[in-house]
TrEMBL record:
Residues 49-104 are annotated as: Disordered. This is NudC domain-containing protein 3. It comes from the Eukaryota. One of its GO terms (cellular component) is cytoplasm. It comes from Papilio machaon. InterPro entries: CS_dom, HSP20-like_chaperone, NudC_fam. GO terms for biological process: protein folding.
Length: 278
């Protein structure tokens, strides 16, 4: 009921005593007020039990005893929790180390890399480049040239920020760039769906085995989505002990061949159990 240990029992005893005719005394208070008073007094005594450790005074010896018992109870809970933790740890060997899952915290370099002058990120179909610009740089101060196979970004004063070939083709007409919060943001669309191991041809490649190569299901081609759905359905069928899609297709073919010309089973009731399919 939410009471600390012993409070519920003490509350019941006090109420019983107040209702005992031997202990009954005339009072001008209604029964509801008397019950509320008993309740408040009982709970108030228990609130004193949970006093902070730096308290210098206590009301009486009963409070000290109750506080001691309450401390023992909390200590028992802590001990039980520690025992449970030890039991959980005992399930694994002492030298067990959980697998390291790569986490890419910086979205500007997601599946990409951080370079000296720029940072790039990618999905299977897109590229995003982030370049930190000098203070107070405006769009008119930049010259951005994006072609299908190369990219060039330089300031009007002649300083070159990026100028190199791309390892793969992009859709130059679909490229977009803008300036936001002192950064040049460039968005590129890939011609082919593939993971790039570098943004520029002269750049050090990244390890594609360490990137997040997962893709949302709705981004896959329709035939791939259909195949994934079929695999999921087949797995559910296996768990239920039911035939998979391949088994159903094979059964349909067998039914057609059952009554075909030259079949030894022609005219008989279909019964696949008579066949031994390896």
């Amino acid at each position: 009921m939410g009471f600390p240990p012993g409070v519920a029992e003490e509350l019941v005893i006090k109420v019983l005593r107040s209702c005992d005719p031997k202990n009954y005394k005339s009072s001008s208070k209604p029964i509801s007020e008397i019950n509320n008073e008993i309740m408040c007094n009982t709970v108030a005594e228990e609130i004193e039990v949970i006093a902070e450790e730096d308290s210098t005074t206590q009301d009486d010896e009963n409070t000290k005893e109750t506080a001691h018992s309450s401390g023992d109870y909390s200590q028992d809970i802590t001990t039980n929790e520690k025992n449970d933790q030890l039991k959980d740890k005992s399930k694994f060997p002492e030298d067990y180390k959980p697998p390291v899952i790569p986490v890419q915290k910086n979205s500007e370099s997601y599946n990409g890399a951080v370079r000296e002058k720029y940072t790039w990120a990618q999905t299977i179909t897109e590229l995003d480049i982030t370049i930190k610009l000098p203070p107070n740089t405006k769009s008119k101060d930049l010259k951005v040239l994006i072609n299908n196979g190369d990219i060039c970004i330089q300031c009007r004063n002649g300083e070159v920020i990026i100028k190199d070939n791309l390892p793969y083709k992009i859709k130059a007409n679909d490229s977009v760039w803008s300036i936001s919060e002192g950064k040049l943001l460039i968005h590129l669309e890939k011609v082919q769906e593939r993971w790039w191991d570098r943004l520029l041809s002269g750049e050090e490649p990244i390890d594609l085995n360490k990137i997040d190569a997962s893709r949302p299901l709705d981004e896959l081609p329709e035939d791939h989505i259909a195949k994934v759905r079929e695999l999921q359905w087949n797995q559910e069928q296996k768990l239920k002990g039911l035939p998979t899609s391949d088994e159903i297709r094979n059964m349909e073919i067998l039914k057609k061949a059952w009554n075909a010309e030259g079949s030894p089973f022609k005219g008989q009731e279909f019964d696949p159990s008579v066949l031994q399919i390896q």
